[in-house]
């Protein structure tokens, strides 16, 4: 310690590793007995949080490089380092120190009382950094995140896709040429044409006559479907008239919550509260029959793309799944014995590729060879294929078509009148084989070029000049969202609906003499679509006859166990692979999933790696119009492929330009083409999610506008100076609201990049990478950084983001945590006590975690948390803590630790039967009928019910107690004597026979009535829902878990006086066995404890975002140790403990401090099943 | 024995020369066997608030009540509640509707003339704690758009004297703290209940524990084995063990700064000095096994000293009982 530091009034920072300390003065502190617990008077320990971590060492070690800090001091302006001390770590929002200049936070008291506006947590950015500074102050980048998430909210992908479906696809389906019109075979003049289609306001049909506007909450309570009517405008003939009708209802469409059509769309918190909706609820699911259903994201191989792989025989095979609105088909172009064949389901055997080309009009072999490529090696490789077809005597197009026609697999029970084989072959080549390549009037040119291109690629792979594609590569995957699935379903149902309508029209019109002009609109039955939609979403069975699609489990009930589980469900991605297949490829984490999918969030066991979750910033694209991009390409000099010969297409000077897998043309200067296209996109002149990807190996530029691609935002790095384009002023602009993310996109500061385009980028993970690159000089590197990661913690998903210090944990532990957090009890939403779900678990006193992360702030877990900050001691105690068991303090439990509320729904309905008889509810029977009066054992079960036969709120329910004293008529089918009897129930009840059908409570543990709801919906006359409540305190056997995959059951509950206590008299809430650490290697937990402890003494929440140490998003161990030291605690977090039983000090120091513990839903009370009395049956004779 | 600190609710004293078992017995008894009175049974007449009955009861139970438990009889299962073993509290609050609140506000400002007839009648029918109401109103005004919420505090518990309790407790019985939040009510919500407070010990439930904590630590003997100078001295005195050591400034130029032990009581045994290998060698810290620094932190119904006395009485009684039992056993043989 330099002596000159003494006596100075202003603190001076000395960087000398950890021990660097400054002092304000030497005035002594005298605390009579206890050392200062809260704040030392010293201005101690302004230690660098992270003077560039350890990554640098490896560079330093490199040959002959100057220690880079020295270099930077000479060549660059001083580095902007996170503010010294702890403020930035503990989430203090002000920036007090920039560029090494102290802006005055020497005294925390001053800044606390200082400018209040800067303290506002919503105030992102500061005015203290120069405007043109790159966001080098490292820590500020994360401030972008809230804005990204604001733009697209958290579960935006579902909502976006649903909106796209409603606004675009639905109209397209109704307007599509094949569905637009209904005509009758019996009346050539008759037609019905749909001119428009749209959705109305969400509503509920009360009965046949009335509808009322629906709110989602109402629907949940009343077991209704939250749906809106689908209206169409039609134009049709009625007799000789042409009638135009507007707003004809053709069905009801379930509405996704928070979508544009939902009444919750863009509602303020206050308005949401009025609708009893939780403001933190992300939406993106449906309410069908009162149940919340989420449509999971489905992952599949991309459509209309060529994938080259080895088939079962080990031969090279290109598979192309074509998908258009009309048809889905799959074609293969594969090698067999050195020859190339085309394979398709409709064709009985493989067709030589030369024959196919001939059938498509490429009769000359020279032309065919040119289409594939005129390089000698390709010609050689193709020779066998060409020879084969000429050997078969196929020389002309007609011969080829006839040959193909003869190979067509015929449907035995086809009603279609037979066509000549050549026509049939042409039909199949047009419609079925590679159906996504457009063919107009049998002009097969485009398709021939396409086939030639694929053949070329197959041959190149065969010759070893190109590599196979990777099926697991994420750029080859497309994610199907709710909108796509609904669109398929709606299209199918709409066609069925139209067919039904046509059949009805035919039926009526076929009758020769009609008295009245037939009005087709009158025979519209909306039920087909309504029920089809509801059924599909309610059961999760997607059955589409057209595409022979039969998928089960598409929808799942939204798990409302905790807020996190609901969030986790909305980001879940289901893979189409069968779970039984024993291949590791699709299950393992692929490098291209970086930033797109959460590496931690996947279940264990069967579905491991097949069920995935989106990363925080991942975005899924929706379909975009290709026309503008096509024009753009033409304007930029892409030559139309149809006007070029095969030789030119495959020439060495040209790159192919493919748009969504289709060959658009060729371009001779692909690099500048891509550059220009990207430039246009960065100016907002092309869609922000369009990807431009230059594939050098394939000599092709791939442009993708299709939906289902995963992409993520990145900060663009300027190519000239290697600095990120995101500047301080942008962050401030975002904070002030003068800018939004769209502006950033249009100004080319950030952009969305998909998996494929990522191959053309070099992404710096941190600012530091850029610094190093700049230091090494822009020219020395072959490839320059093109992008900068927004923040490394965004590679984790929503649920993965709640783990403190995940980067210090062993990877599987994070996976366990993610799985467990979904079972943790906590707040499920601020409307939790209003809800009437089947089962609700909540904590009585949930706490926000002492150690949190940026993700946690973003998703609002702080506002509706689930768990307790538990003071733990890592030690063994009593022997009841082996095998991960934990020991709880009785005093803590007495004071409310782990107390939880369990609300369970019981439901019954009062029905009207076919014969007119109705169920009834009756009050308790007359007490005088019982021998012991009120205390009679048989009477006790009626104690909770009121005169109306329904239980009273607040009453205690014991096993056998009646909740709803319902009686059903004995005769519900037969005649009950007089049709009017059912109508005047009161009079006839004497005649009617009733049998009791009460809803009674079964359960060994008593519950209390929490809420009673009497309502009705379109199916039930009366619906009675009763919520029963149980409040449980933790007991031996209940399961607890920290956020590090460390779960354990409670092994013993110990009274406070028996528990060990430390010098301050603190006894732990929970004791954890130290054996939990060595094998699990959850260093994150140790850090969480340490940071939590420091946070306790400093009175702040700690931060622990993934990889956050150098971004100011996570507290460093060094800073934490310093904080502990400052508060008179051991810097390693170990305290002296005394035995509670003997009073002697323990021999070892005990690692103790607060850790966030979650109570999991598995409780012994629900698991213990015992039968204490039952009928006994004699099975063996008694001897 | 030596009292170091004796504040309202905190007592710190030294206990020198006794065994750990004795100090520990005292600690354990303080935690779990000195009786207090706390709410045990709650009779809920009406509760339309957001807080569930069970949670509300639990919260009420944890409110410390400022009464001397020695004046009460313990109550066993099956015993009748009498004025000797039970205190009765009532809580009867209804959050007024917005209109009622407005009327009350007008009255509070003394502007009676502005009241309409209905408002006046409304006003007469609401029994509201004025201060709580004003506080709630102030909050409502200060935060526009915020819905009106009534905060229910421990002071709203009304003691209902039973039998001769009024004579026995002329000053009335209140919770120790007036400002413990019990619940928050929205307009129209209502809580009506009767709570019975009874005698109990911390062993049964933490709410009966009379101390926030009672514990001790061992005195640490700090010795300087080797001389410490300059930077090391600075580091030790300011960073590692603040308050324990005192810097001896270098009076004469050429002499070095050194350090001496000033207040070993401030030592927390954080062992941080060991990070400096020089200091690790130079300082020796040892715990004195029979020198306890005992601290008692009362919840507030009794002075901590009284609690210690009570605890000793319990201990005494235990010993007496033990002696009694052994005597009986001896006689039996």
From TrEMBL, chain A:
It comes from the Eukaryota. Residues 303-480, 556-620, 657-718, 743-792 form the RNA polymerase Rpb2 domain. Residues 801-1171 form the DNA-directed RNA polymerase subunit 2 hybrid-binding domain. Its EC number is 2.7.7.6. Keywords: DNA-directed RNA polymerase, Metal-binding, Nucleotidyltransferase, Transcription, Transferase. Gene3D superfamilies: 2.40.50.150, 3.90.1070.20, 3.90.1100.10, DNA-directed RNA polymerase, subunit 2, domain 6 (2.40.270.10), RNA polymerase Rpb2, domain 2 (3.90.1110.10). It catalyses: RNA(n) + a ribonucleoside 5'-triphosphate = RNA(n+1) + diphosphate. Coiled coil: none annotated. Residues 108-132 are annotated as: Disordered. Signal peptide: none annotated. One of its GO terms (cellular component) is DNA-directed RNA polymerase complex. Component of the RNA polymerase III (Pol III) complex consisting of 17 subunits. Belongs to the RNA polymerase beta chain family. DNA-dependent RNA polymerase catalyzes the transcription of DNA into RNA using the four ribonucleoside triphosphates as substrates. This is DNA-directed RNA polymerase subunit beta.
UniProtKB/TrEMBL annotation, chain B:
It holds the Pfam family RNA_pol_A_bac. The keyword Hydrolase does not apply. It is found in: Nucleus. One of its GO terms (cellular component) is RNA polymerase I complex. Residues 10-325 form the DNA-directed RNA polymerase RpoA/D/Rpb3-type domain. GO terms for molecular function: DNA binding; DNA-directed RNA polymerase activity; protein dimerization activity. Its main location: nucleus. InterPro entries: DNA-dir_RNA_pol_30-40kDasu_CS, DNA-dir_RNA_pol_insert, DNA-dir_RNA_pol_RpoA/D/Rpb3, RBP11-like, RNAP_Rpo3/Rpb3/RPAC1, RNAPI/III_AC40, RNApol_insert_sf, Rpo3/RPB3_RNA_Pol_subunit. Keywords: DNA-directed RNA polymerase, Nucleus, Transcription. The keyword Nucleus applies. GO terms for biological process: DNA-templated transcription. Belongs to the archaeal Rpo3/eukaryotic RPB3 RNA polymerase subunit family. PANTHER family: DNA-DIRECTED RNA POLYMERASE, DNA-DIRECTED RNA POLYMERASES I AND III SUBUNIT RPAC1. This is DNA-directed RNA polymerases I and III subunit RPAC1. It comes from Pseudo-nitzschia multistriata.
